[in-house]
Every structure is written in C-alpha cells, then in structure tokens.
Write a structure and sequence with these properties.
The chain is of the alpha+beta class and 289 residues long. The protein folds into two domains: 73-181; 182-289. 23% of the residues lie in helices and 38% in strands. It is built from five helices and 17 strands. It has helices at 2-23, 36-54, 59-71, 105-108, 121-128; strands at residues 80-82, 85-92, 95-104, 116-120, 132-139, 146-153, 159-165, 170-171, 177-181, 184-189, 192-196, 212-217, 226-230, 237-245, 248-258, 261-268, 271-274. Strands 5, 6, 7, 8 and 9 form a five-stranded antiparallel β-sheet that branches. Strands 1-2-3-4 form a four-stranded antiparallel β-sheet. Strand 12 (212-217) and strand 13 form a beta hairpin. The protein is globular, with a radius of gyration of 25 Å.
Length: 289
C-alpha cells in the first residue's frame, strides 16, 4: 500500500512539473529591459527594419527632406509662457541635444527674436560626460525661478530630476535631486516637493511607476518623505501635484489605473474629495467662479 501511495505521489509531482514547464512564458527574458539577450534581440530587429527602410528607392531623398524640416531655423518655436517670459526648447544642426532658452513676449512675436540661453544641453553633456536627453521642466508659479529639470540618459523612460535656478541659470548646489527612475515630481511650494519614485521594494507598480506619492521637505533625506497617498501595484501610477492660482493653491492627487484613464482627488485637510469628471478627462486648471 505504501509503495502504491509513493508511486502515485511521484506521478502527481512529475505531471505538475511538466505542466509548469509548459505554462512558463518562454519570452520572460524580454522583460529584462537592460538584459544582454533582450538588447541583442532589439538590435537585431532594429537593424532589419532600418535595412528594409533604406532599401526603399526614395528613402535617402525623404530622409534628407525631413532632416531639413526638423532642423530648419525657419520653423515656429513652440512657446511656453511662464510669467513675463516665453520659454522654448530648441534643437538644430548647431544644437544637437538642444538649448533651453527664453525671451519676452514682445520679442517673441518678431521675425527674428533675440533669445537668452538658460541651459545648453550640449555643453552640459560634454562637461558631465553624460548622454543627456531633455525631458522637460517643472517650475514653481508665479515666479518660475525654482524648476525641476528632467534629464534622461539616452532617452530612456527613467530620468534624473535636478533643481535649477532660472535667475542664476545653473543647477542648485545641494538642491532637490531625484535619482534616475520613472518618478513623478511636482512643486508644492519653494521648500516642498510632491514626489513619487523608487523608494525600495514594493513601492512601484507592475508598470514600474510610483505606487506611493509623498511630501518631501527641503534639507531632509528623500527617504524621510511622508506618504500622502498609496496606490495599488496594479495601477499604472499615482501622483500628487499643486495648481497655483491668484486665489490660492489647490493640492490634488491623481490615481491612474490604466493609461489615459484616471481619478483625481482634491486634498482638503486630511481628506480626499473626488472630483466628479469623466475618467478619461484631463484636468487643465482651476477657475474662479
């Protein structure tokens, strides 16, 4: 009897092993984004695609035309109005990585505006020996002096965020700094950031974005930031941000269960009040009644 039970147990275990082997995803190695095998696979596909494109008779002609369009000095510089300044990020053949620049509105409308360079990314990359790619900036209203500049190594989703002073036109020594990650960072006030980043095991969603949103005070370690909202590992991400108006500041929490769909809450004291708008709506501002 014992032998029969032992044989039956072994059969069940063997069958379970075979089933698990069949159910195992043979492409899990593709999830290792920086894995050697995954990178080699991506390069192989990329090389094959490029070769197919280049084989098209008009490829060289179209490539040259598009390059001229994207680097033309005649294209309209996209404006970002911050206080009295009009900011623009610009790339051309002389500024491959780009320059962050600004001018005044009355100058911007001229045919050839006089621009003031705030940050030269080509010079920064050379000085720091980094392959920096510009990913934008977030500045504190209404002065727009304090900014968090987002820089990516080679254009990856994970980026470094560094505090920048637009008056001194340099990075702030000892200022706010968020290490490379798929972070969510926004200003609350001059000495406080809302931040979501990789705080360690269990703090990211399955998508690799922040699961926790925290309040971080200037002059304190990042890991001492206090939690204001905790999402689910199944969410895409969560974040907190502030909207600054002449009437005051509105602190909001956003929970994104999937891309292009989310829920926004207004922070009132210790409470979160849901803003009753469609989940696919994008909150753009707060208006006085």
């Amino acid at each position: 009897m014992q032998r029969r039970l032992l044989a039956l147990t072994l059969i069940v275990l063997f069958a379970g092993t075979i089933s698990a082997a069949k159910d195992e995803d043979p492409y899990l190695w593709l999830e290792e984004i920086e894995g050697e095998k995954a990178l080699a696979w991506a390069k192989e596909r990329s090389d094959a695609t490029v070769a197919e494109f280049e084989a098209v008779p008009r490829f060289a002609e179209l490539h040259e035309q598009l390059l001229k369009i994207y680097t033309s000095r005649d294209r309209i510089p996209g404006p970002g109005i911050r206080g009295a300044w009009v900011y623009n990020y610009w790339q051309d053949k002389d500024h491959v990585r780009g320059i962050w620049r600004r001018t005044f509105l009355d100058e911007y409308v001229k045919e050839s505006p006089a621009w003031e360079i705030v940050l030269d990314l080509d010079a920064l990359a050379d000085a720091e020996g980094e392959n920096w790619v510009w990913k934008g900036s977030s500045c504190l209203a209404p002065e727009y002096r304090h900014c968090m500049v987002t820089l990516s190594r080679g254009g990856t989703d994970a980026s470094v965020r560094r505090e920048f002073d637009t008056v001194a036109k340099n990075f702030v020594d000892g200022g706010f700094f968020v290490p490379e990650s798929k972070a969510r960072v926004s200003w609350k006030d001059e000495n406080t950031l809302w931040v979501g980043t990789d705080f360690g095991e269990g703090t990211l969603t399955k998508s690799g974005y922040p699961r926790f949103s925290k309040e971080w005070k200037r002059g304190t370690p990042l890991d001492s930031a206090t939690t204001v909202y905790e999402g689910s590992v199944d969410d895409v991400s969560v974040s907190t941000f502030s909207m600054h108006t002449p009437e005051g500041r509105y602190d909001l929490v956003n929970k994104t269960p999937e891309f292009f769909r989310g829920t926004t809450f207004l922070r009132l004291g210790g409470r979160l009040v849901k803003i009753d708008v469609p989940e696919d709506a994008s909150l753009q501002g707060v208006f006085k009644e």
